[in-house]
Amino acid sequence: MDFPQADFDYYERTVSIMYRKYFTKRITIALVAAAIIGIYTWLVKEHLLINGLLLIILLVIAGYYWLQAQKFPEVFQGLLAKNQPEAKIESVVEDEYSYNIYDGSEFLTRINKAGVRNLPSQNKQYTLMVGFDKRFFAKEPLQMVYYDMLDLTYEEKFRLSRGGYSATPRFLRRFTWRNLKASAGNAVSFILSNLFFLFILYRLIRYVIAMLRMLF
After folding, report:
1. pLDDT in tens, 145-170
2. What is the DSSP letter of 150?
3. Is 94:155 a contact under the CB 8 Å cutoff?
């Protein structure tokens, strides 16, 4: 039986909602940030060049995400094609904040644990994991992976932390170098993405505080 086709048909609406929520969240954040910068610049009339460039960048990001959100049918069919004529069964290794996907011994990608859905397949032996790539700049963030839950394994440090042997406090583990680097995908994108977002965050906080002072 062609169970991937049946599964994809059955879960298409569910995955579509996840996909659009993923991009809607990012579009909203970009537009809110652009609005704060735009309002502050209009009121205060300072840093016109820098703020103008930031506005353009944020609007371009929002536009890019909007275009990506329209590509769901194409992306969905591409993921189905990878499981034709037979389902592609991967190995999954769980760590603190992601699922590491392997094809045999070959590493494929990391799926962010946040928002992951494990959907039962018509083939009862397998589960269809639906989630999004851990990297900030993934070319195609949506991931749909078949795996056997009975074969799920744990990354060694995560296994030890589950048993209470981690030297790093739980609330700090998200900020370990290994986890941050995994989120960025590589060292260059890690540095560039974090510098950009920290720069934007700093300005947003400063501008919001300044506008609140104007009001009060």
Report:
1. 999 999 998 876 666 665 554 555 55
2. G
3. yes
- Long-range pairs for 74-81: beta carbons < 8 A, 24 or more residues apart: 75/19, 75/140, 75/142, 76/8, 76/12, 76/15, 76/16, 76/19, 76/142, 79/8, 79/142, 79/143, 79/144, 80/4, 80/5, 80/8
Per-residue pLDDT tens over the stretch 21-70: 999 999 999 999 999 999 999 988 888 899 999 999 999 999 999 999 99
- Report whether 134 contacts 110 (CB < 8 A): yes
DSSP characters over 82-98: TT-SS--B-EEEE-SSE
pTM of the predicted protein model: 0.79
Q: What distance in Å separates the CA atoms of residue 21 and residue 19, rounded to the nearest whole number?
A: 6
2 Cβ neighbours under 8 A, 6+ residues apart: 84, 85
Cα 2 from Cα 161, distance rounded (Å): 40
